[in-house]
């Protein structure tokens, strides 16, 4: 008797279609279950997670002054609200996720207040703000309409909040997230300009843009960051800028070359007939590129642009070469402490879980955005 369950049909078709598939599936599933059970058993009964709780400040903000900790927490709250708004704008009002998120965050915050775990209490508030932003953007169109303005105002506010301590004291996960946002946003317009320049009818602009893209794509990122970090003080000895700013410049210049190639592939996918039809209607070349060509190209290259954001986030640890303390470097600082030096597994598993959660959230948002854009609602 055939089963009408879609799940059983999928399992039979994809995992147990043939004898070879069945054997391989049994072996792989058994191995995965054994690995998962071992990891869960270690995490619950053997691991000592006190090292994470005791050093949560280092993980989150690095060496930021302790007496100014209200500033990073305020920035984390702003980022949580803005991130929730962004997810609500692309994913819609997912009440099945956001309402339990708010409820659990409030419950965890209440228990944290009772147990006097300030970090847990504030972290729960950030999660609740993310859920509120998600619901608000998913339910009300005006919130989505002004989300870009909210992000600009939020980034400026975060920069002003963190500035009094000096950019050299920024660190941890907060610095990694901010750096990723800034590098991603700044590299896109530069990459779009380079992509159009490479297709320009003017030979000088085409040659310059092509040479820039090829040179940047042939160099390792760590070399670009290190060279800019060294060269800027030589060119402007009195105003070289902070180390983090020079690192941001290196990341922006480097990843803009990759964005340019992604966008150029999207531009080539736009049918030539649409451009000719727009020109026949009397539209200027700039208007054609802005209103017809570029929107279609962005739809095509959206997965690549999201992958570029993930690449930036995963390569932020390279900033160690100029003395910055990102999230991974903060974990290494924790392990240098003799009191927590024997908790290597706990520290790296915690960082792995954070990186996986961040990447999964970005990927989920990108898929939802692709779906909205494909349906004409994006």
From TrEMBL:
PROSITE patterns: ABC_TM1. Keywords: Cell membrane, Membrane, Transmembrane, Transmembrane helix, Transport. The chain crosses the membrane at residues 21-45, 70-90, 122-141, 148-167, 173-197, 218-238, 244-263, 300-325, 345-366. InterPro entries: AA_ABC_transptr_permease_3TM (IPR010065), ArtM/GltK/GlnP/TcyL/YhdX-like (IPR043429), MetI-like (IPR000515), MetI-like_sf (IPR035906). Pfam families: BPD_transp_1 (PF00528). The keyword Phosphoprotein does not apply. Residues 173-366 form the ABC transmembrane type-1 domain. It is a multi-pass membrane protein. Belongs to the binding-protein-dependent transport system permease family. HisMQ subfamily. This is Amino acid ABC transporter permease. It comes from Polaromonas jejuensis. The lineage of its organism: Bacteria, Pseudomonadati, Pseudomonadota, Betaproteobacteria, Burkholderiales.
